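Hey L., structure's done. Input below.
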Amino acid sequence: MALTLTMCLAALLTLTSSAPSEDLIVNLPGLTWEPNFKQYSGYLSVGSKMLHYWFVESTNNPRTDPLVLWLNGGPGCSSLDGFLTEHGPFRVDTSGETLIPFPYAWNQVANMIYLESPAGVGFSYSRDGNYSTDDDDTAKNNHLALRDFFRKFPELASNDFYITGESYAGIYVPTLVSLVLDDSSINLKGFAVGNGLSDNNMNDNSIVYFAYFHGLIGEEEWIDIYDSCCSGTSERGYCDFVAGSKKSSKCTNELGKINYLVWDSGLNVYNLYADCAGGVKDHTLHYDEDRKKYVTSNFGWPFMFLENENYERLKAIPLNKLASTPPCTNATNVAKYLNTATVKRALHISRHAEDWDVCSSIVDYTKTYTTTRPQYQKAISRKLRILLYNGDIDMACNFLGDEWFVDSLHASNPQERRKWYYKAEDGTKQIGGFVKVFDRVAFLTVKGAGHMVPTDRPRQALQMFINFIQNTPY
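Output:
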């Protein structure tokens, strides 16, 4: 009996000491309370690439709770933005100096890894100075980073593992999932994508319908666009605007007006019903005297089928002279906090890393995939659980395009689209949105949320996350 107890204690001590002590965050500036969870920050080594991660343990039972990877999109935007503005355990106050507890943090039910990827994003860097990458290279490096994470935290290797992300992580997540599925050392159970870019054509076609049926264009404009792109159609049913733009310059011009309206007119592309942070101003390519850089709010991936004069100008600008800033967003408080010297020391940030910004200006990214249908089909065949969720007032990656995409997978046992519910702050039962469920696949909308669902609807987002992780009905 004594021997058994000694062996159990030894095993417990081994688990406790497995986590890398050099990455443990001991004293985080801005915290005014003692967290009831451990957190780590450091680097995962992938050849010449050093990918920064911030890991927070579950407040419930970190030894048995699921492990979840989170990736923000862009491409080239930092997952620390998701950590500090969406579902991490604290938020940065407006002064950029104090951390405020966040009551709807996802680490209440899961261990959360926030990975800054690819190299050149946030505090991640490349020791050889090469910041050229693409979808396949990013997936491969993220997979290798996970292998290094489990080397640092072997005690978590048997935990159920999930990959999650948002926006261009609609590409990052399924391409990474496809690699991890063939790695038996990782206990992958499923993945979730929020407002993801799943299929270029579906996203580009659906935003035209979204604009019309949300009152952004009038009946005359709708007729002009439809007739320019789908002339000869007797009734105005479904129109393939992408195909039409390749045949008609008039169609391309009409769709260019939609592109401008959605991205550059001053509307908040990430939340149609929210104000534009900083007000309506020039969101096209321009030189910012204060930052001494050219600034663009359009990352180039929406409306890929359109000839874009701005895009040609972008290619001629050196990467270190270009700043990509998401339109109608303001992360100055987060940037101020993360770039404070004492914070960098607490997070063990390398002196070789660039100053933190929401999106990278040095990553030279090549987009490889226009659809992720093969990766989803592989995941379905391997019986992973999958969730695609969308805030229903986002225009960057709108809900309609992602719903079309899910339908195109032809997953088995489709069920009737229905309402899903959550408990409001006053204890009442409220409608969170709508959900369409198949075998192992679900498509879910969050009512009144934009692109960053946990920012706009944190209580609903946490309920959705719990249902997904715990595999309970929505």
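The radius of gyration is 22 Å. The CA atoms of residues 407 and 443 lie 9 Å apart.

-- N.
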